[in-house]
Amino acid sequence: MKIIVQEGGVASLLKLLKDGASAEAQMGAATALYNLGTDQEKVKSIASEVSALSIVVKAIGKSLMRVQIVLVNLVARMAELDEGVREDLGRENVTRPLVTLLGMDIVVEEAKTPSSKPTSIHSLVQINKEVSKKKFHSTSSLSLYSDGSSRGGRKEREAESPDMKHMLKISCAGALLKLCREGKHKQSFR
User: How far is CA 2 from CA 7, 40, 84, in A?
Assistant: First the structure.
């Protein structure tokens, strides 16, 4: 693994991730980067490449779901292993695609309640039942990355299995948790 870093292989992997002509090429590059980032020194080596974090963040937003999972796990690992890289990821606004992916397929419904009347428990139960029925029968979903021309577009996302979507959401939640943690010496909650 160390020889890949020493011989400039990280830049090639990032280029493949960015410009990969096929999903398999992107998956291979993402997996290799994930397998490289096993300690703080290697994470710093990956992050020190020109535009590395920007490339990873952009790829999270527009890759196929299986590539997104690997990249999100890479972000989580990098954030966990190096505080400086965690801050750099924040500057690259990595939270935006993570939150977007976490919220995919969430149906947005607004309950219509008269604002001038006080709301009783009975009316809240009725509203909840109506919203639940609409959610059950609704086929619309929320997707901020809905451009059909992108690799991770809505059509591809809808075709993915529920298990794959669930794995992606779990990975996004874990990455967000690791991104918001402070260094071990700063974690005292009083």
Answer: 9, 13, 21
In sequence order, what are the residues at sequence separation of 6 or more whose Cβ sits closer than 8 angstroms to the Cβ of residue 125?
none
Half-sphere exposure of 77 (CA within 13 A, CB side): 22
Q: Is the pTM of this model over 0.85?
A: no
How many Å apart are CA 137 and CA 130, to the nearest integer?
11
Structure tokens at 132: 């639940």
Nearest to 160 by CA among 137, 174, 141: 141
Q: How many residues does the chain have?
A: 190
Note whether 1 and 38 are within 8 A (CB).
yes
- SS3 string of 76-94? HHHHHHCHHHHHHHHHCCC
Q: Mind listing the pLDDT tens digit for each residue in 101-141?
A: 998 877 655 545 455 555 566 666 666 666 655 544 443 33
- Rounded to 5 degrees, φ, ψ at 5 are -65, -45
Task: Give the residue from 23, 31, 160 showing the smallest Cα distance to 104.
Answer: 160
C-alpha neighbours within 13 Å on the C-beta side of residue 86: 17
Give the SS3 label for residue 109: coil
Distance, in Å, from the CA atom of 12 to the CA atom of 108, rounded to the nearest integer, reads: 41
What whole-number distance in Å separates Cα of residue 46 and Cα of residue 143?
30
Helix (H) or strand (E) holding 113: none
